[in-house]
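Entry 14. Structure prediction run on the chain below.
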Amino acid sequence: MKIIKILNNNAVGSVDENEQEIILLGKGIGFNKRVGDTINQDTVEQVFFSPTHKKAQYEKLVSEIPYKILGYADTIISKASKRLGKRLNDSVYITLSDHLNYAIERAREGIDIKNTLLWEIQRYYKEEYQLGLEAIEYLYEQEQIELSNDEAGFIALHLVNAEMEDMEANRSLEIAVMVKDILNIVRYSCNVTYDEKSVSYDRFVRHIKFFVQRSLSNQLENKENPNFYHDFNEKYPNEYRVSQTIQKYVESRTNITILEEELMYLTLHILIITRQKP
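Output returned:
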């Protein structure tokens, strides 16, 4: 392979055997090199495809991210891929590296950002969240900085997105239609007017999107606790009936059985969105 672009001392652009543009990472891989030079394979530590629609953005990020941060991301992603038993989308190497770079900077400056999706991440993506917790421990060992559980949630979300990216690319229209339909079921069944600028609406939409993604990939919760659900549903019968309507709709489109635990959390989110203050 030959160099077609030098991004920095540790990253260069090239093309693979199929003439698809790739980015190669490795300590010193671009040092004292010129466009057209042959790449020493022994210096290549990581290879990922450069997405056509975001190529300039990715190349800029790679050129600006410190090499050690790319290494941290690679360690976290490699561990996650083995633990989850899945190949994660290549783009996560750059998106997670960029996030880690700014997370570490923010921590050093004492800036703390709250993760409004932390509850959902902890509840629905337990393994990814555990990996996020382990990641912030690893970063403490490397940088002696303390990151919050909110940051563990952000890291987990990068992993979740990398797991779902290929599926979402192939089924993006179906996901969008189902999310819209579910929002309309709640809107008309509960006679609610959404405040689309509110945090509660944003959180509700994200929960519905997660729910649809998990439905399409058959990763829904499958635990049962009938007594607890009975008490919960007796207390909020109207919201629960709307959840049942959503259940029938999703099952008709996916042929996936939605159990009571998912209905309970749907009911909870419907309760929050329909009782929000104007």
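The chain has ten helices and four strands.
Filed with the rest of this week's runs.
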